[in-house]
Amino acid sequence: MYDFIKLGVMPTPILLPKAPNALDKWAVVACDQFTSEPEYWQEVTQQVGDEPSTLNIIYPECYLSEGDQRIDRIREAMQDYRSHVLGRVGTGFVLVERQTSCGNRLGLVMAVDLEKYDFSPDSKSPIRATEQTIVERIPPRVKIRKGAPLESPHIMLLVDDPNRSLIEPIYEAREQLQSLYDFDLMMRGGHIRGWLLDSHAQGKVQKALSDLYDKSGGLLFAVGDGNHSLATARQCWLDMKNELTEQDREEHPARYALCEVVNLHDPSLQFEPIHRAIFGADSAQLSHDMVMWCRKNGMSISACDEDHAEMYLLDAPVCIQNSINPLPVAILQPFLDEWLEAHPSASIDYIHGEQALETLTEQGACCIRLKAIDKGSLFESVRKGGPLPRKTFSMGEAQDKRYYLECRSLVR
Length: 412
Hints:
This protein is of the alpha+beta class. It is built from 13 helices and 23 strands.
């Protein structure tokens, strides 16, 4: 049986608000959701009011235009919360039961070793990206994390555990564990419960992870959500580790990042497509240009019936013949990258959920609706071919994404 260090995880001190009745305002959804719906974040702000909330220690991407000014406020809130709001509830892992629109999703919150993570296309590390990492997106996020005294994760890692040996047995024995929280999440986020794992349960986790590692072909964890956040944490660690002593490099809290691990085979874990919304574009021109682009690259795109549709281009079901890649998004995204570069007045957003897409269509956006991929093929695809095209899939609808809740100190 491997130790936790070999497996790339670490039992870590877990911080939660000392006032448990305030958790409904404390927890907010991942910062990269509802980016084209400022009214969502405005309502969150109204619900939170002046109460302590993770809203004040994250940077919702809806507000990125505010620049560095918001970062200063984030730092101040982190320092205040670390001193006056948060308390240590124990050291180890947290078992999570999250009610989502697809059922109850189980997870384990744990700290993972950033030395064991590599997002490069040819990575052979135990923790790998499932989708292409856009390195240009990392530096702005580094500015937010660098020097931050706290972290709270929206990162979700997947483990390929068809026999349900890791998380599910711990959940079956949950009544023997210390309850940490049990409350309704705001903004249609469902209900969430959490338990702190004792030493006996941690031993079971170690044994199960060791067995999974032996069967993993070198890929123990695949990033499901929050890859750019994990890449940011890694970059911050790389920037600082050479200034540390050898012992400090082994023990410094910034070497690790807090994540939630979820079983790929959890029945409630549904892979949803990520749709594209193009703003400032003429729909007829966009459609014509995609047809011509496919033709130039030896393919053809044509209307088809609903049963055979590979995507919906401006609500019209279409399929691609002579495709150079089995994933339609692998054809669509290179076209959009070229098209947007040639049309600088246009912009793109990546949309989670068909309802949000329909709203944007009504508001005049040119929308492209995609279908979900088969989640069972994910690990093998990453092992054989590296990361999938960026924004290939999403795990559930926007409101089902991880909410910031547990915290961890990044400084001693």
